Amino acid sequence: MIFSFYINLLLFLILIFPHQTIATDSSAYFGFSIMDFAYKEFREDGGLFNREDGILPGILAGVTKPVGQWWDLAGEFSYYSNDVNYNGQTQSGFPFETRTDEKLFDLALQLKRQIKTSGHLNYKLYAGLGYHLWKRDIQSTATVSGLFETYEWWYGQLGAKVAPSEKSNWVVDFRLSHPINANIKINFNGLFDDKKLNLNGQLSGRLSFAWQAQLSHSLKFIAEPYLEYWHLGRSTTETLTRNGQTVGHIFEPQSKTLNYGIMIYLMYAK
């Protein structure tokens, strides 16, 4: 339902702007990225429950292929990995500081319409469907056992890429995203039975500014600073078990992730 809404809104925006379609080329890119990762979980009263902060290096790649006269089909991939600082508490309120090994995997497909307005403004409107996988390995300490958590969700997205002119070196990319069927799987390192909780996906988004330099007729260098935001609502409260016997209750708190960084990559077009 959410993805259908994005497609309908994309078609509506295309129709309300005066425009002409312009031809695009097939392209592919590959590069690396540095992300400043900042994740926060919140208590029921809105106060901070725990947070994770650190630098995640990553790799990225993508391809774009024209589909007919009016549309482009694009694919995006990224992977980030490193350990970060964990500072917070257990659900019972015990203070807890450690390190967390993070692995973030993201894959998205987008359908784009490239348009040139009568005022020479170039923009692409697009809708997409993506998949996000996050492996979060919270390390044990001498007093507290760690957790291994796996978050995953599909997401719909609606966005626009805008350039002041056809020859501009700058492109602004803004997109709204909404997680679909988000969940978390928790491994308690043998203390309790594994548990899966459904999460309440909330409106999220991303903003980037890409600067590009033409290295040759078919090769571009691109530097793209970005800001990314994910919001997941609180899960329902579920039973916690050990060897199949109920020993308590558990829920996943509301969380917000605000990342910023820069992507550096080469794009080849033909």
TrEMBL record:
GO molecular function annotation: aspartic-type endopeptidase activity
InterPro entries hit by this protein: OM_adhesin/peptidase_omptin
Name this protein carries in UniProt: Uncharacterized protein
The species this protein was found in: Candidatus Thiomargarita nelsonii
